[in-house]
Amino acid sequence: MNTELRHRCRNQRCRCKLPEPVENPHRAFCCRSCFEQFYRTRCLVCEKHKHHQRRQLCGHVNCKREKARFPHLFEWPSTVPAPIAGTVKVTQEVPILRPLKWLSGSLRGFAWAETDGDTWILHHRDGTVSAVVRRAEIGDHWWVARPRVYPAPPIEPLADAQRRAVHTALWGLRLDRKSARRVRAGVAA
Questions:
Q1: Strand partners, 87
Q2: Which residues of the chain have pLDDT under 50?
Q3: I need a surface site. Which of 48, 55, 124, 188 has the fewest CB within 10 A?
Q4: How far, in Å, CA of 110 to CA of 123, rounded?
Q5: End-to-end CA separation in angstroms for the chain
Q6: pTM, whole model, 2 decimals?
Q7: E-assigned strands of 26-109?
Q8: What is the 3-state secondary structure (H, E, C) of 101-136?
Q9: 96 in helix, strand or coil?
Q10: Cβ 24 vs Cβ 73: under 8 Å
Q11: Is the CB of residue 102 less than 8 Å from the CB of residue 124?
């Protein structure tokens, strides 16, 4: 059986090139937000329209059984392993260990790591990459490469680009149930 490799993100609003081609259509997304946006109105298993956005499945018994049998196939994978407290391993020809300084305050659980001279990555404590800042071709200016936003972010100094990356990464975080309930109550009132 020949299966086609996917080279681009399945989210119609993104369609950016994937780091490596994938066979499984459930893995053909560039980031978690694209995955969640795509499956917001679709069933995780059969990909048919579902009636409630908060549910993961359409409600069919076969979909429930399939998700119960193979839950790892229908969840967003952690593509980046969780960094060990204090160090992060950067994959290059020669692995480099660099210390991670976990940020405090409102950014508790996040840490910046420099992979090479041209890239800074914002790690989350759960092992996911929240934001990427890359150096522009001109001078000592930087831009936010991930998460992808429209219109494109400006080219700016490193501190400003990191601040912009943190803001866009925080926009994509899900609220915990208690906070979400409080926000909904405030909107309804």
A1: 99
A2: 1, 79-97
A3: 188
A4: 6
A5: 56
A6: 0.42
A7: 87-90, 96-99, 101-102
A8: EECCHHHCCEEEEEEECCEEEEEECCCCEEEEEEEC
A9: strand
A10: yes
A11: no
Q: Dig out the tokens for 64 from the structure.
A: 């429930």
Q: Is-contact 110 125, C-beta < 8 A?
A: yes
Instruction: Please state, in angstroms and rounded to a whole number, the distance separating the CA atoms of residues 59 and 50.
Output: 8
Q: What single-letter amino acid sits at 164?
A: R
Helix (H, G, I), strand (E, B), or coil: what is residue 50?
coil
pLDDT, tens digit, 9 for 90 and up, residues 134-161: 888 877 888 888 888 778 788 888 888 8
> Domain extents for the chain?
6-74, 87-171
Residue with tokens 């409080």: 182
Q: Which amino acid is at 155?
A: I
Reading the block at residue 56, the tokens are: 């993961």
Distance CA 175, CA 186 (A): 14
